[in-house]
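User: Show me a protein chain along with its predicted structure.
Assistant: Here is one chain, sequence first, then structure tokens.
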Amino acid sequence: MNRFSTRVILGIGRRIEHRGKFRLAALFYERALATKLLKSDEVRFRLGFCQFKMKKYSLAMVNMESAIAHQPHRFGWIQSLALNMQRMKKFDRALELFAAACAGQPQNIRWHTRYAKCAVAARKKDLAGSILENLVVRFPSEPASSAALADHLLQTGQRWRELEVRQAYVPVHELEAKWMSLTGQAAQFMARFEISRDYFLQATALDPEYSKAWYGLARAYEELGELENAQRADAQAVLTSNDEQTSTLGVGRLHERANDWTRALESYREALAASSRPGDRQGLNYRAGEVNSKLFNLEAAARHFGEARATATTVEGQVLSAYAQARVYARAGNFADAADTYSSFVELLPEQSRVEEPVALYRYAHALHRMNDYEQAASVYLRAASAWGYLDGTLKVPAAAGPRAAHHIDLAQAAEERGRWDDAAEAYRDALWHTSTTQRTWQARAGQALAKFGEPQVACGYFENMLLFTEISVAGLGTALKGVGRHRGALYIHASEQLPLDEKLVLFESSHGKNVHCHPLAIYQAMRQDERFEGFRYAWVYNDHNAVPAQLSEDLDVAIIKQHSDAYIQLLGTAKYLVNNATFPAYYSRREGQQVLNTWHGTPLKFMGKLVKGAIGEHRNVQRNFLHTTHLMVPNRHTLKTLSQDHDLDGMFPASVALTGSPRVDSMVNLSARRRAEILAELGIDPQNQEPVVLFAPTWRGQINDRSYNVNSLVTDVAQMARGAHQMLFRAHRFAEQLIGDAQLDATVVPASIDTNELLAVVDVLITDYSSIFYDFLPARKPVLFYTPDFEAYDAERGLYFERESWPGEVSDNIVDLVSSLRRTLDAPAGTAHPNFEENLAEFAPMEDGNASARVIEFFFFDDHAHVLAPEADTRTKLLFYQGPFKPNGIATAFVNLIGSLDSDKYLVAVAVDMNATGSDPAALEILNSLPSHVRVLPRAGATAMSAEERWVSDSFHAQRGFSSAEAENIHLGTMAREMNRSFGSARFDMAINFEGYSRFWAALFAAARSHAASTSIYLHNDMVGEWLLRFGTMPGLFATYGHYDALVSVTDSVGEINQRQLGERFGIDESIFTVSENLLDLNKPSDWADLSEPVHEFSGEGLTVFANMARLSPEKGQAKLLHAFARVHAAHADTRLLLIGDGPLRLSLEEQINELGLAGKVVITGLLANPFPTLKSADCFVFSSDYEGQGLAMIEAMMLGLPAISTDVVGSRSVLSGGFGLLVENSVEGLAEGMERHLNGYRAEHEFDAQRYQLQALEQFETLVKKPVPTGSRLG
């Protein structure tokens, strides 16, 4: 087609797109391109764009990339492809494309904002900030650029910087009431109420109908003590609100919308006191009840709902108020009053629409159920089931329920038709036992059958399961449980905390439900032959209902459940015994009374845990599972070593460990002649055939799409192995089986139905590579050959515990050598063994006598200690730290110094790590990897599981910067205590130390660590109230956790004094828990590293005096003040220079300031340096300009390099320099300028800093901290 035809096609296609019919447009473009006469990049791109709009991102990527390959300068196309890659979560590629598009069209502000949003999605918040900061510098007068930066800072919680930006760009937005209001909100968040008031006043002047601005103004007036003005502003907020309820209910409704429950309650109380109209009082009482319930004032809430009900003038109002009252009674555990209240309105339910009839009936029945009034409860449950429609018609069984469940449903319905309710109940019970899916209708039918059969108590148990979550939440479910992860976590909490432990239920899981095999299968088979387990039931996790092994499908005591299904989660939380050869999901946490047997799935040859190369933290859920394991069986001591030491659990491993041998190997050792003949027949081998059987069983190490290499080489190699007078078998990994497909192998591919260990019993020679199958084969005392053509690459990638020279068989690197080795082996006299064989047999298979399953059963179920390996006593003091995200800053430096100074013979040090914050930051990973090898690294796995109510409390805690009530505080601390158990299992420590001291999540977590640590402490690295008022508006939430710690640790005396005074006065914290432990030093690092390289910048010129500041470029560090001071000094002393070593959010504004002051070339910002010491050492004097410091490690490191020090006279720095170790100056421009002048005029400190003496004192302080007696109870004053 010609260009005219392309234009026509694009014209028609774009018109279809503009109508929003992207599917039709895509079809049109596809047909145009299919003619092969049209080769238009524009049409190809439009096709990709339509596919993007249709959410077919993979197809869109192909077509967009094809178009861009021919026209690489179409930046709009590149930007669209970037959006597509972002949707595919291929963030690195998306960021590259956004960068290219923005570089091509730098004036496109919208693209830059999208680029920044992609960086946020990729967890690169600093990159996003840098993009938007640069955008503002480039387009300062464009409202969109400053709005994008301010919104980003708001969304990422950098409220102090948001306030700075909004204030700085008020002239650009001077006519925008919303901008003024948002500036007021930012100032209010930062507790700068006068500034907040002024901006809200501007917002209301620009838009007098702006209700939100009036409301914000009222709060500012209130904080400033201008109560009359606050009342007037509140009145205006109500008057200008568009919400009908606000005009009726008053400002209390606005407080509710702000989630300010305390103010809302106060407002409703005042309104009730002033109101006499029944209609108004009904609404006010109802809202007061809701607010009281959210404050957990449940008795008051019930009273207000009762008053609302008494004054309601409609049936709907009566029912709604009574239902709320009954729910509050039930939440308080007052089921008698709840039942009475439900009973008073259930007959009115059909006359209204606000309360769902079946839900209200269910809640009524549930209250009766909790009162043990089973007969009445069953009757009401039946009404609820009927109202839901669960008792109507013939049941349709979903395919996901599985064939066994369908069979029992057929039996149940047939029994119902005959009126045989006992048979129906039994059949429904069996159906529910055999399904993984949630079947509320089946629960209702089972309950109905049992009720009709005269068993109301049992019936109630089934009726109760018509709802997954029976708990009452003060906030309702809302969106709290939306999302797969949240649902699973909440359901597991419900199962493990609300449902009874089933003392005769065993759950088996093997390879995450992908197989029924290995040690769990062997243990199960042995149990089924043991009369002691009469009456036990078994749940097997298996993900394919259509391929259930026959040995399980015919056992009525066995349920086959799919991993992560609702049934799986409930059984995981209620089974007394759990058996797994791998790991349970991250939401699993062992409940009290549960026993967990980990059988692991083989003796490791390949590196495990932290030794796996390039996989930092990927073993976290394996490690976490071991902390929940009560029993571990191992075939040899090497396996225990790899599972314990290489998962950083040595000295903390909680499980009882028994050397039992491998249960799965029993089937090889004990295989009967009959079963041997059956296996050979299934393999197509005549049992009378005397030819030796050779098995090739390689491990899997490719990629699923790596077809050509794997399959082609496999076919060739097997053909060579098969030559000769022997039977050739091939057992593939399941991934390899998918790839082999119809490939013609000169070997019999062993079907999946034959168990690997039974197969080994018929094998005469095993050929493998790096698979641990050879360890299982050792007890057969038959030859093993190793084929490792890729050894160097494999060893470099995965790592192996043992050199090939120690393996129990000949090793070949090419197929020719392997074939020769195989021929020699087959020709050798019977009983000929490799020189390493006996040693390997003794080391790795010492217990394989065919009785391993029996030993494991005695060990796990009957507490037999005959084969238990007694752990070595570890009497060291056990410390659990949280450092934070390991970002290169002073806190990270102080932490590394502390850990490096602790004697590993005295302390077992474990560090909890948030890999979401650390894992994607190369600089952070470098610091993490620099920790001493003896440190146990515990990467946190998974997310906190919460009930709906707990999630609401948690969200409120983070949003409102604290707790709205004492009960909310108790609930959240309880949630965090459970999270400690989920994260750290049975590990126990002498002290849990939150060294980072800023994250509210980790502060709450360690505050709740009493069940896992004898004492707890949190570091206060700065003047914390100062940090709150200057930078971190969320810190009151952090302070709310302090009273639950045993020690609040400041890092200098002066900081400790101000923290004790200010936090004690403002937040009522007991003064006795404040203490001091100064940061430790790395005595060698500054001087050693200073000589490793050249400075990154050296000023040219003779006789220069270079001042240096090394700190994060952040407001509290005062570099803006320092620049003004240096400008004065430089004006008088032209031979002076200034180095700012570091990076941070103020870099761009500081660079602007340097230019404005005419200091370009005289002041240099180096950025963040991996090794700052050569540059620091090149200076002549260190200058600290901070408004406050925790201690000032950078200044101490400068002094260790011999630099004289000048610092503002503020907390932290004062403790370091007082006593004549440096020059303390007024915290002002004038003070800093005077200090630099004094240095130029020859000032020298009275004393040199003695690092060795300081180190000994600091270490003594820390050791005193961890030995401190443990107090009891809350530490709130």
